[in-house]
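To assess whether ligand presence alters the predicted conformation, the chain was also submitted together with heme C. Input:
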Amino acid sequence: MAFKTTKNFILGAIVAAASVTGIAYAAGGGVESDYKMEHPDWSFNGPFGKYDMVAAQRGYKVYREVCASCHSLKYVAFRHLGDKGAPFYLADFENPNDNPYVKNFAADWTIEDIDNETGDVIERPGITADYFPPIFPNDAAARASNGGAIPPDLSSMVKARNNGADYVYNLMLAYGSPIPKGVEITPGLHWNPVMDGGKIAMAAPLSEGLVDYDPVEINDHGELKTIAAPEATVEQMSHDLVQFLAWSADPKMEQRKSVGLMTLIYLIILSLLLFLSYKRVWRNVKH
Ligand code: HEC
């Protein structure tokens, strides 16, 4: 490539950099799209990262009111939501089984159970010890309701996909991007360039204002506060969902990071003490 002027050179460099960094997104399966992946600066990344629990509280609402009609959350028990370090922890209710949020969330679901006396299959309201129930009785029923595809469990989705937080976030936002020439979308499928191959059996689940966010939050100290609820834009709901699903995929992350930090501090102090005692023990020895 020969550049006649510096300006041309700079333009060329920008174009080259853009193609290297992949500003246009390849949807896999040889499909190219103009969709630009967003990479939000997630609060939980990095060695000191923490979940944004207030966002995760809103994310639960989006999950419950939107995604839960198709997707299960089978590795989460209701009581987990009220544990210390979980989105709905309340300082006044150390035991999550007493936490009113947790109790209400559980009671909001119907759980299939066996009657201890008769052995019959019965349905009862959920209790705090229950796990989130399956949405469909079996895979065949799930397929039948979803155009042949099974909605996967979301408990560990953020861990299950490469760069899962960005993936789930962008999967929500990428609906509606223009369908490239030559790509045919058959009925029951939807164009989504973030999905491998670009075609997905899930219709866009989010739309502007789909949920009414509550004007209440539980702050970092486990206390209830009245707040101005944010607008439920698609970006906001997707961000909140990712905070919630990142927590459900790795509920012990914050604990692990703080143990790691304490271990590091301990080792630094220990090394310092060892060094000082070494100096002292060998003080009178020439070397
Ligand atoms: C009407 C049912 C339905 C609703 C509601 C729904 N989904 Fe889905 N979802 C599906 C189906 C079906 C699939 C499987 C798609 C496929 O394999 O083509 C899927 C797949 C997914 C996947 C996996 C994509 C992949 O990489 O395989 C994620 C993540 C997801 N949904 C997130 C969500 C979230 C978050 C919500 C709520 C905002 C939601 N879904 C609401 C039906 C639904």
